Amino acid sequence: MRRFKGYMTLEASLIIPMVLCVFALLIYFSYYLYGRCILSQDAYVLAFRASVENSSQWKDDPAGYVAQKAARQAGSKYFGSSFPSFDTSIQGKEIRVKGRSRARHAAMGRYFLKPKGSWDYEAEGKAKRRNYSCHIRMATRLKDLGKEILNLGE
Length: 154
Hints:
Elements: H1 10-52, H2 62-74, E1 85-91, E2 94-102, E3 120-128, H3 132-152
Antiparallel strand pairs: 1-2, 2-3
Helix pairs in contact: 1-2
């Protein structure tokens, strides 16, 4: 009976580092995807909250609202990534919030598995400024007027 002396074969010495690199890359991609999803959510939430804000301080300045509330919204969810920055643009009644961040790792350095480009990511959220209670009242009033007009014909 032969005893195993702990020597690795040539194939195993090439395959095991490759498998470890692939696992590390999967973990880094997971952090990247997680950061991208959270950034998308935060951009939309900031745009939506700015669109429904009715206080006198923020009613005419949604960009100021986003700048003031962005740090609280982002919180400490961005592990493995830099803290995001948010830019706000307003076109008519539409508020757009664009967030940018970067994954803080340079996975695989200069090796063959490194993705082309960088680990930056961005997401955009948009919401329209509407006064929902006025829309509901107007729709209800139009419905009542329609019923009155139809009843006049009888």
